[in-house]
Amino acid sequence: MRPEQLAEFYPRLFHMAWQGSWENIRKYGLLSTQALVELYKLSPGQNCRLLQNHRPKWVEISCDGLGTATVRDQKPMSDKGMCTALGVNDPRPWYELLNSMVFFWSTKERLRTMMNAQAYVGMTHDLLVVDTAKLIDRHCDKIRLSRMNSGATKPVPHPRDLNLFKTFEEFSFDDYRKRRGVKNAIAEVCVINQVRDIKDLVVDVRTVTLDDLDNIEF
Fold first, then answer.
1. Is the CB of residue 198 less than 8 Å from the CB of residue 26?
2. Label partner for 111 (CA 20 to 30 A): which of 120, 128, 172, 215?
């Protein structure tokens, strides 16, 4: 895939953040879980629990001078589901991989599906809408593409492996587009570690519920 194709077919990307988190995101950047625990200088034990283990519920962390941050849960997946999907007995490397990246949905439809999931229906979120071309311009080398929702094993633990996330050069966009259509060719756009300058890349930030999406034009 060429970077310009991502900007052409998916001009806006969507990040669903915890309600009330935008102020810290604006100040410190959009951080992966790994980057967040490093910023908050958590103990080694806390790091391991957050980075190597499944999170069945959200976790609050705090630090003097930084206030409180919320690390999202991973309810759409489970240890058993991940082991089945990966064909392994230990899902910890997968959790470490997911926790090392920042995730964006490629389409409004995928954002809606996530917000309508049983774990999140009825919740309010901070929605970040990002200019894809600007993200590419500043972070092209750190961008990875996924053909599927990497953080879900429910209702079906679709097979995957640690090589799921592809660079532009590796991602077979034309093949996926022919077989699935543009809307389903790319599920996630990921950035390794963090998007420190996210405040310069957003075109809209607002607090939304699922019902709000149909009334918003991006």
1. yes
2. 172
